[in-house]
Write a structure and sequence with these properties.
By secondary structure, the chain is of the alpha/beta class. The chain contains eight helices and 15 strands.
Amino acid sequence: MDIVVVDDESLARQRLLRMLADEPGYRVVAEAANTEQALAAVLREDPDIVLLDIHMPGESGLQAARQLAAMEDAPAVIFCTAYDQHALDAFGVNAVDYLLKPVRKPQLLAALAKARSPNKAQRQALHGQPLPAAGREHISARSRGGVELIPLQQIYYFAADQKYVTVFHAQGETLIDESLKELETEFGQRFVRIHRNALVPVKRIEAMEKGSGGQYYLRLAGTDLQPQVSRRHVSRLRELLNRL
């Protein structure tokens, strides 16, 4: 599990890093001293978990958590703070846990274990249980000529870039108005998330390959396009491929 540690106090960050240094299954991929750095680190590293302080210069950790919650495939948030009066607000932004400083290792590990537990939708997808069926077989997009209909069978993958989602398909590339979250909810197990910014049709996946730089990519049927798999989704993709 990849973790980003966010605290304006260097000593507090280092304390958390020491607690996690010898724990298998956890890796700190970035540190941040404020909200701006935290959001940039999350966009860059696509972590599973963010350990987040509340009182920092500039925007607070609560404000950062609200922005994280609005992201596609948002990371789990665990607050680590010296103040107990924000607990209700913290759970209002879907925080997994709320730890008071000085954070103790047993409490930290318990919170991380809670964050690792898959939610209901993830359990259904992992074990092949059906999610709500999708009713349509096309994606619609506005074009100069009116409305373009893209058959699901011709789609290679969806990729999000800030406010836009691009459909890569047999006829080229098309921008659409729908979000990845909406598409993932509607089409259930027909598409699988491989990155915070990408959804791929399960039937298109032929293999997952590791590049020379250590990144993972998917080989898809019918195209030379190779969308990247983020580290947080590698293990789930391996399990999926073992079942295909």
